[in-house]
Amino acid sequence: MGYKASFKVWRGDDKDGGLHDFLVEVNEGEVVLDIIHRLQATQAPDLAVRWNCKAGKCGSCSAEINGRPRLLCMTRMSTFTEDETITVTPMRTFPVIKDLVTDVSFNYQKAREIPSFAPPPGVQPGDYRMQQVDVERSQEFRKCIECFLCQNTCHVVRDHEENKQNFAGPRFLMRVAELEMHPLDAEDRVSAAQEAHGLGMCNITKCCTEVCPEHIKITDNALIPLKERVADRKYDPLFAVASLFRRKR
Amino acid sequence: MTVTPGAPGRARIEARTLRTDRWWLAPLVTFTGLMIFIIYGTVRAFQNANYWVPQYHYLAPFYSPCLSAVCEPGSSHFGQWFPDLGPLVTPPLFVLPFVLGFRLTCYYYRKAYYRAFWLSPPACAVAEPHAKYSGETRFPLIMQNIHRYFFYAAIPVALVLTWDTVIAFHGKDGGFGIGLGTLIMVVNVSLIWAYTVSCHSCRHIMGGKLTHFSKHPVRYWLWQQVSKFNGKHMQLAWASLISVGLTDLYVSLVAGGAISDLRIFN
Ligand code: SF4
Ligand code: SF4
Ligand code: FES
Ligand code: FES
């Protein structure tokens, strides 16, 4: 059942690099990561690739296959025709370390910039009480495996390196949304979403949602609801008047 | 192209995209669809004729409500608020800012035209052609944040279309009647309502803004219902756009005498 597939794999480092051609065996049931491993085992022993679970759960093997940001371990070879040349490149938004491995520390930096969960004053950890319906919405966001494919695909930073400083990216704006929707979080996150984390840069073109391997509705369920909350606070004159008279939520 | 290949430390890949699928198809279809609607809408808005069928009480949606003194007799169900301001100021122009504003600031249409018209980005992982990008942080795009006000305005507009549909159950001898036009208007107004209700601002107002659903069971229920529609917002945006265009076309053809309405009852 096996056949020989043409692969183009990007090899290089932060200074230089390019696409290298390979002809490599493919067997039934394999995924792209299997082929990369076969290359390592046969033709390119020093080919660098990051992976861990091979089950779409650790988020390590993010790369771009035929130009589309995907997990190497979750992309089946059966989705390609036998005569198709398959191009594998590292994620383009982050600095490359070697071959398919990129330095994703941008994302860790952005994670640190978000203040952590803050319970209301006086409530001790053993006393957190929440209803299931109140946490359900944020539970969707907890499915995130931190593959950073959304961060990589978002054109705000992918096409504009200079925006990296002022834009947290979809994954971390989603984190802000998660905390903002959390029934026990006492921190005010709405103004910070717009000012510190750059929510206004997002133009809701949904590429983050399109590439998310966990199928999280990032744009519909996190970013747009967060934009609406920002609009309540910053752009809605009626709310400004109303909030003088009543307390929030 | 912008900084992509040159940004320090990134993998050196010159191609704007390495995608091999037909990524340009979706923006092309969107562009074409919206252009057809814009051209049709412009022609119709300035035609200032063929919008009212007196014997069946069909009013074309582009001319509803007809609020100008130049409106054909019988077509102004809600009064004539505006005087005759010359041939360039046709009746649709008084309502258009609200209807158009609702669609222009809609979260789905924003995605559609940012991608298809402004190419920002044309498709995922395809570099956009602009050197600078500030998203929706500055004027004019920061104005997208007032979308909810257009949502408020969309409700009376949908109510007016509902009324137009109710009175379109009208036969030639003056009593009850149903024609193909009536059915088309029923479908259209249903899609308009579904699109309006599925709005993201509506979802937020109904309950999305809450952090404690458990304290507001009614709003939680409303939020759940709106969320069901909201999940289909893109489909509803297109379906209602097409239906409003076709309904208008049908009424205009009947009103102009090009075709005669297919009568089902009276
Ligand atoms: S929807 Fe917003 S955050 Fe997501 S990819 Fe598009 S611009 Fe980036
Ligand atoms: S939100 Fe989805 S695409 Fe983004 S990091 Fe998490 S799992 Fe990956
Ligand atoms: S190796 Fe863990 S997600 Fe692919
Ligand atoms: S989001 Fe589309 S109509 Fe409000």
How would you sum up this structure, described in words?
The complex is a heterodimer of chains A (about 250) and B (about 270). Chain A has about 250 residues and is of the alpha+beta class. Chain A contains ten helices and seven strands. Chain A has helices at about 30-40, 105-110, 130-140, 150-155, 155-160, 170-180, 190-195, 205-210, 220-235, 235-245; strands spanning about 5-10, 15-25, 60-65, 70, 85-90, 95-100, 100. In chain A, the strands form two sheets. Chain A has a five-stranded mixed sheet with strand order 2-1-5-3-4. A two-stranded antiparallel ribbon of chain A has the order 6-7. In chain A, strand 6 (about 95-100) and strand 7 (about 100) form a beta hairpin. The longest helix of chain A is centred in the last third of the chain and has 18 residues, at about 220-235. Chain A is elongated, with a radius of gyration of 21 Å. A two-stranded antiparallel ribbon of chain B has the order 1-2. In chain B, strand 1 (about 50-55) and strand 2 form a beta hairpin. Chain B is about 50% helix and about 5% strand. Chain B is globular, with a radius of gyration of 22 Å. Chain B is mainly alpha-helical. In chain B, helix 1 (about 25-45) crosses helix 3 (about 105-115) and helix 5 (about 180-195) runs antiparallel to helix 8. At the A-B interface, helix 3, helix 5, helix 8 and helix 9 of A face helix 3 and helix 6 of B. The structure holds iron/sulfur cluster (2 copies) and FE2/S2 (inorganic) cluster (2 copies). The site of one iron/sulfur cluster has 14 residues of chain A, from helix 4.
